[in-house]
Design brief:
Blueprint lengths: L26 H13 L4 H11 L4 E4 L2 E4 L1 E2 L3 E2 L1 H9 L8 H10 L8 H8 L1 H33 L13 H6 L3 H12 L9 H18 L2 H19 L13 H8 L2
Helix pairs in contact: 1-2, 2-3, 5-6, 6-9, 6-10
């Protein structure tokens, strides 16, 4: 495995949010249209998806909170935007439905994945898939390997120092966490301290995903991605109504990221 410190190559993606077609309304107008649509009788989730599709701002500050909807400039976290917009319609929507969406990933009405993709538009949907594979599946892979290492340690003979065990980061990315954070700082200028905001950690996770795509051979990428997909599926079995807006699989992954 190579340990070169050059920047990871970005996966092939459709144009990002900043390159959406001209003429999209300003955020304030999008929010106004969202509220008007709900008041006119449109289901709030339908109206919310329309607002997401028309949204043109990749990041913004609301009070002292920073909303970065485009992780790493490539991966669209539409649920973060849904959280932002839900605050603008809290007086019009049942709280239990928005809480189910934001905290459990449960959609209040059934919408097919193809319809969901169409509502987001080509650019945002492509970036949405980047988020699913580059953040959610990557987090699931990390958890899978952590559990794998934990099982190995439990089966070690007495007298073996568990500190000698290979860590998750070294096993997946070929470096320790300390080495990776140093490389991340070298390439991005972002320093990860003892306490890391979740938005920054998601960006780091997506960066790790691109590191993995570049440094691993195709067979290893496929194997590790398969582990992440399996872990994610196991995690979601208990929540049968959970929706992501796309079906995730090895074939789609290989075609999308050319592995």
């Amino acid at each position: 495995m190579s340990t070169a410190s050059s920047a990871p190559e970005s996966p092939a993606v459709a144009p990002g949010l900043l390159e959406e077609p001209a003429g999209l309304p300003a955020p304030e107008e999008t929010i106004l249209r969202l509220r008007q649509a709900i008041l006119a009788g449109q289901h709030w989730f339908d109206a919310l998806l329309d607002a997401v599709g028309h949204w043109r701002t990749p990041e913004e500050w609301i009070g002292d909170r920073h909303y970065n909807y485009l992780v790493g400039g490539e991966a669209f976290d539409w649920m973060l935007l849904a959280e932002r917009l839900s605050g603008e319609i809290a007086d019009l929507v049942p709280a239990r439905e928005t809480e189910a969406l934001l905290f459990q990933g449960r959609w209040p009405i059934e919408i097919e994945d193809d319809d969901f993709a169409g509502r987001l538009g080509t650019a945002k949907y492509s970036a949405h898939l980047n988020y699913l594979y580059g953040v959610l599946v990557e987090e699931a892979l990390q958890l899978f390997v952590e559990e794998e290492i934990h099982k190995e340690l439990r089966n070690r003979p007495w007298g073996t120092d568990p500190r000698e065990a290979e860590g998750m980061y070294r096993r997946v990315y070929g470096k320790s966490l300390r080495e990776l954070t140093a490389l991340h700082y070298e390439q991005t200028g972002v320093m990860l301290g003892e306490t890391v905001p979740y938005a920054t950690w998601k960006a780091f996770t997506y960066w790790l995903f691109k590191v993995r795509l570049k440094l691993q051979d195709k067979a290893r990428v496929a194997s590790d991605t398969r582990k992440g997909l399996a872990q994610l599926s196991r995690m979601e079995l208990a929540v049968s109504e959970r929706r992501r807006g796309a079906s995730l699989g090895e074939t789609d992954f290989a075609e999308r990221f050319a592995v």
